[in-house]
Write a structure and sequence with these properties.
alpha/beta, three-stranded mixed beta sheet, elongated
């Protein structure tokens, strides 16, 4: 699977001069965990996450403390005050397996997806889980549709717990195309040819 096949698009973004409260409202309204921060020249200048806005918005409650809370820090005013400026991005053709590894190694929950310098989407952990949770019937139907569009008549698809098994009669080229197409469908695990499958 590639980033463009699982990403959320169009991406919900925010400007650096927007208020932290605006960022909170957008995160809540769209039920997302992070917002790419785009300047007035459409450049990615940062990312603001749930954790960032919590630090910028949540102040201590004096009722929860034995001693008076003094010298409270001023609440952050704008997204630029709380955003992360060093943003990890991936291109739209990135392998989802590499994105998952990046998330595990760095602890980030969302990664903007770029086409050139433009942000075209965002991949979150939730997007990856959603892709992995797709039903076998849906995966099978999508692979079969791809085969029909590619003119691969007579190929049969079985899907069991996301693993795909293919059977058909055709040239080595047809078999190679069938294997590649099956791998492109979100949620697919391994792809195998049925036992005894031969090409001609």
């Amino acid at each position: 699977m590639l980033a463009r096949e699982v990403m959320t698009s169009p991406v919900v973004s925010i400007g650096p001069e927007a208020s932290v409260k605006d960022a909170v409202r957008l995160l809540d309204r769209h039920d997302i965990t992070a917002l790419p921060v785009i300047d007035d020249r459409d450049r990615l200048v940062g990312i603001v996450s749930e954790a960032d806005v919590l630090l910028g918005e949540v102040s201590p409650d004096p009722r929860a403390h034995v001693r008076p809370v003094r010298d409270l820090p001023e609440a952050a005013a704008t997204v630029a005050d709380v955003m992360t400026r060093a943003v990890m991005t991936v291109h739209e053709g990135a392998d989802v397996a590499d994105i998952a590894q990046l998330m595990l190694e760095t602890g980030v929950k969302s990664v903007p997806v770029t086409h050139g310098h433009q942000v075209v989407g965002i991949v979150s952990r939730r997007d990856l889980i959603h892709a992995l949770a797709r039903s076998d019937d849906r995966i099978q139907a999508e692979i079969q549709d791809l085969f029909t569009e590619a003119g691969l008549a007579g190929w049969t698809v079985w899907v069991d717990d996301s693993d795909v098994q293919l059977a058909g009669h055709g040239s080595e080229r047809d078999t190679r195309i069938a294997m590649i197409l099956a791998h492109t469908v979100p949620g697919v695990g391994d792809v195998h040819l049925a036992a005894g499958q031969e090409t001609r």
